[in-house]
Design brief:
Two copies of one chain form a homodimer. By secondary structure, chain A is an alpha+beta fold. Chain A has a domain of 57 residues: Phosphoribosylformylglycinamidine synthase subunit PurS (Mth169, Chain: A), CATH 3.30.1280.10. Chain A is built from two helices and three strands; from the N terminus they run βαβαβ. Chain A is elongated. The interface between A and B is large, with 37 and 37 residues. β2 of chain A pairs antiparallel with β2 of chain B, so a sheet runs across the interface.
Chain lengths: 92, 92
């Protein structure tokens, strides 16, 4: 029997990679009068559910999904969190 | 004296809003052979630092930044977390 896991995946640009969208957002905030904002970087936040035998298997699947499609590991880092849920979607 | 806060902002599409990029990523994962993936949604994950007198002031600023620029509240929800850091960037 498989268990459903809710995954939260955070994909961020590597520190050495320029982030023009983040720079534009930071400039926009400054132009709107927000002071003291710095180091703004924009990444992706992906939510999904996955079925797996156990948390180790789910974690292995997520690593593979991130490496192959969800993140571009040449320029991006990723990390994820897993929570077991019942199939209806509530945390169990 | 002001305190520097590290903010993590999560911007997600409202549940009623279609997410074509998320649907495409979910199809892509299925085509790559990943089974049991569902409810994939893609949002934004924004990191920034902000200076404020205290956490309440930082939180108020973040709310205003999200409402005015970082999120489109017609179609997106947002939430954020704040952590006090020393100016060099480490959690204090």
């Amino acid at each position: 029997m498989t268990q459903t896991y809710q995954a939260q995946v955070y994909v961020t640009l590597r520190p050495s990679v320029l982030d023009p969208a983040g720079t534009a957002a930071q400039s926009g905030l400054a132009q709107l009068g927000f002071e003291g904002v710095d180091r703004l970087r924009i990444g992706k936040y992906i939510e999904l559910t996955v079925e797996a035998a156990d948390e180790a298997a789910a974690s292995e699947q997520l690593d593979a999904m991130c490496d192959r499609l969800l993140a571009n590991t040449t320029i991006e880092n990723y990390r994820f969190e897993l929570t077991a849920i019942d199939p209806a979607g509530a945390a169990s």
